[in-house]
Fold this sequence. Notes:
The protein is of the alpha/beta class. The protein is built from twelve helices and twelve strands.
Amino acid sequence: MNQHTNLPPIPFIDVASQRRRLGRAVDDAVKRVTDHCQFILGPEVKAFEAELAKFCGARHVVTCASGTDALTLALMAKGIGPGDAVFCPSFTFCATAEVVALVGATPVFVDVEADTFNIDPKGITAALATAKRLGLKPKAVVPVDLFGLPADHDAIAAVAKSAGLFVLDDAAQGFGATYKGRQLGTFGHATATSFFPAKPLGCYGDGGAVFTDDDKFAETLLSLRVHGQGSDKYDNVRIGMASRLDTIQAAILIEKLKIVPDEIAARDRAARYYAEGLANLVMAPTVPAGLSSVWAQYTIRIPGGRRDKVVAGLKAEGIPTAIYYPIPLHRQQAYKHYPVGEGGVAVSDRLAGEVLSLPMHAYLDSATQDRIIDAVKRVLAR
Ligand SMILES: Cc1ncc(COP(=O)(O)O)c(C=O)c1O
């Protein structure tokens, strides 16, 4: 029986509290757009891109219709296609590998590190041999800053440099995080992010962006997001997409970006509170020295085959949880025919059976976290 039914429900992600905080600012921003009626590539899109570039220090930001499109546009801009191998982790959201297949290239799955959940740079080296053995050209690596924690970008850059790989950072979950004092958005040749509502910087629909310091690459992205247009709008110079960030979403994001630093600090406080409360109880996530996470998810590990019982126990106590990700990509129907790099993906397999994400957002108060922590203690004691 749920002994907490008289307590308010706990949201997994609290978009409503943020909406209340933003109040009129968002309403006014939307109204400005509905007044000027420039719904596609209106002035707010450029203004938001400039703000984003300032925020993370990237030279160019090209917004688009989703995080998935951001990844796709970057691969297209690099000309990646059939016969090319693109290395990506198996323990991630499907879009990381989906875009590789969409452009006709071959995703080659690489394992992750158990303590960071991020791609193992040694695995990339091993997977190079796999790609060559299969007659594929090793072209790119797509590290993911999973759950908001930056991947090991220095080690990835070293492997990529020696193998001549293009690095596309999938920062869909990591926007706002830092690696050795530098904001994500400036690692690798390009970075993609997502403004899906549940993300650390989310809009009120779909949206995404590509960050790059490369002028020519940015120019190609601008063309690709509008059907591959050239200087003459009706003389298209390449095959592209219809992938713009709606002006209304840009207007909303301008307002939301203003509170992002404060929200990141609040998420970090919540993560530290969890870490103290759950110490010695579960395998809590850690942040390597010199890095910061934006805690897109707070993901603990429950080893020993007990995870699903803990999920059920927490559900009965009114605590929502989520499992990101229950099936690694190399085992999913759409992806299992793609190669796995030499060295295997044993950690990805293990994590899929152990991970459990707890409620995490910037509006989580300590009383709610105490309820969650106490419930975890009770469930684990059974
Ligand atoms: C790691 C990762 N990559 C890519 C994406 C795709 O972003 P979107 O949902 O905006 O297309 C997501 C979003 O869920 C993600 O988590």
